[in-house]
Amino acid sequence: SGGHYRPPHCLPRSKSAILVAYKNQEKNLHHLLYYIHPFLQRQQLGYRIYLIQQTGKGSFNKAKLLNVGVREALKDEDWDCLLLHDVSLVPENDHNLYVCDEYYPKHMASAMDKFQY
User: Fold this and answer.
1) Considering its fold, how many domains does the chain have in total?
2) Single pTM value for the model
3) Which percentage of the chain shows pLDDT scores above 70?
4) What residues does the Galactosyltransferase N-terminal domain cover (predicted)?
5) Taking phi first (over 0 means left), then psi (-120 to 50 degrees means alpha), and beta for anything else, what does residue 3 get?
6) From the CB of residue 68, how many other CB atoms can be counted at a distance below 10 Å?
7) Would you say residue 53 has pLDDT above 80?
8) Of 54, 83, 109, 114, which has the maximum CB count within 10 A?
9) Where residue 108 falls among pLDDT bands split at 50, 70, 90?
10) Residue 113, in any domain of the structure
11) 80-102 pLDDT, tens per residue?
12) Sign of the alpha-carbon dihedral angle for 95, 101, 104, 105
């Protein structure tokens, strides 16, 4: 779908920008993208995934990359929700809705397999 999706038969539940910053993690990136597209589509979201790659030999600066990603995403659309996603975390449960709370930030990965949940 080229990194974006809009439900064909209904209005999207939310318009979400998914921002993924990475450096030298192509294997994790392919794994995430393989699983996250159907996951988000089952939630009937309108979304676009922004991949922000750091090149060069310097230290990975995830915060700076995500700031750049937010700036670029806001040029494209008035998003309902901005999700700052870790390239190595794949959602496992469809009940973890990728929508924003009206008033508060929301941490999407409250439990992780590598920590035995």
Assistant:
1) 1
2) 0.88
3) 91
4) 2-101
5) left
6) 16
7) yes
8) 83
9) confident
10) no
11) 999 999 999 999 888 888 888 88
12) positive
